[in-house]
Write a structure and sequence with these properties.
With 191 residues, the chain is of the alpha+beta class. Helices cover 57% and strands 15% of the residues. The chain has two domains: 62 residues; 114 residues, 2-Layer Sandwich (Tetrahydropterin Synthase, Chain A), CATH 3.30.479.
Length: 191
């Protein structure tokens, strides 16, 4: 019996050590996983910040869209155009688009000039829209391209030589003298 008692007493001691070693290994594994996750998260955050900084500096160099905040003291001036409803140039089906456009203007004086040229501006925008297919307008890039074309056609109607295509929110010194600063869509439906 003494052998049996000794065996029973020895077994719990050994399994207790095994459990302790197993628990410690599990804790170390969890700590290593948490540390690796934290390291991955910090590197991803640093990489995203670096990409954002590079995009900002590239945007400043090329004159592309910037994420710069507007001056809160300057109240923007907008000219809302009546909605445009046009048949699209899709050949496989009858499709149409209903588009609401607002023009961001340099100042209130530019608003008066826009009103005078409104028939020519609307005509030029309708011509641009009528030559579009629905597939051209479904994604963001297509809408941004349309905004550039609307801006160009608006400047032509005003008798200005359009600037090079690029961003609808232009920042060059020449762009500051322009009456229309940007094109914004307030409604965009394609059926």
């Amino acid at each position: 019996m003494s052998t049996a008692a000794a065996v029973d007493g020895a077994v719990p001691v050994k399994s207790g050590k095994k459990k302790l070693i197993l628990v410690l290994a599990l804790v170390l594994l969890l700590l290593a996983a948490a540390g690796g996750g934290l390291l991955f998260w910090l590197k991803a955050k640093a990489h995203a910040a670096q990409q954002a900084e590079e995009a900002d500096s590239a945007g400043e160099q090329t004159g592309a869209k910037s994420t710069a905040k507007r001056d809160p003291k300057v109240v923007p001036v907008f000219a809302a155009l009546d909605s445009f409803t046009v048949n699209l140039a899709d050949r496989e089906a009858e499709r149409y688009a209903q588009v609401g456009i607002s023009l961001e203007l340099a100042d209130a004086k530019a608003g008066e000039r826009i009103k005078v040229f409104m028939p020519a501006i609307r005509n030029n925008i309708l011509m641009v829209l009528a030559h579009k297919r629905s597939s051209d307008l479904l994604d963001r890039a297509g809408k941004e391209k349309l905004a550039d074309e609307v801006l160009r056609e608006t400047e032509r109607a005003l008798g200005l030589e359009p600037l090079q295509p690029g961003s609808t929110a232009r920042r060059s010194a020449d762009a500051e003298a322009r009456p229309v600063r940007a094109v914004h869509f307030s409604n965009f439906i394609i059926q």
